[in-house]
Write a structure and sequence with these properties.
This protein is mainly α. The chain has helices at about 30-40, 45-50, 60-75, 80-90, 95-110, 120-150, 150-180. The protein is about 65% helix and about 0% strand.
């Protein structure tokens, strides 16, 4: 049996600036591709994408932060282009220091990778798929930790809570994929 394996840029460690890694490429990062597509998308398409995703769906904190800014602009009916996002970051005093430089550098990279907006829905589904898979990894880690630390009478309830959360994530993924195909 053969498996179709997608080649992706390995995920950085949490808190790590992806630009500091030699093997990082925004052009191969699905989150970066989705954000680039979002920045160029018409308002209606952008509104749909920002309603489908949450900041928690992003692995890289800088991408989550930029998504939150873009989402707020879309929700307010304001432009959500790269230059307007930058202006918003400046207005809010978020371009200084290490985090500010990281936001500006990442935004600049996003603007230059050239992902068209007409495939935005596919990129949204891909980001959500990655988040969905990370959720299973986190669930497994949580179960291992629970097995070591929780009292016996709490273990089953913990397992059930994780199961319900994963079920909700599965339903969300199916709903968004279903809309994309219709």
């Amino acid at each position: 049996m053969t498996r179709n394996v997608q080649h992706e840029t390995p995920e950085p460690h949490i808190g790590e600036d992806p630009a500091d890694r030699e093997d990082y490429s925004a052009t191969l990062d699905i989150e970066a591709q989705m954000l680039c597509s979002l920045l160029w998308a018409p308002a209606a398409r952008a509104a749909r994408a920002t309603s489908d995703l949450k900041a928690e769906d992003f692995y890289q904190p800088v991408h989550a932060a930029l998504f939150e800014v873009i989402s707020a602009l879309v929700a307010a009916g304001e432009p959500h282009t790269g230059s307007y996002v930058l202006t918003t970051l400046q207005r809010d005093g978020r371009t200084g220091g290490h985090q500010g430089r990281q936001l500006v550098t990442t935004l600049t990279q996003l603007m230059t990778i050239g992902v068209p907006s007409d495939a935005l829905e596919h990129y949204v589904a891909a980001v959500l798929t990655q988040a969905y898979r990370r959720g299973f990894r986190a669930a497994a880690e949580s179960l291992v930790e629970a097995a070591e630390q929780l009292p016996e009478d709490q273990l089953y309830a913990h397992l059930c809570a994780i199961g319900w959360e994963r079920r909700a994530a599965s339903d969300r993924l199916k709903e968004i994929r279903g809309r994309r195909s219709s």
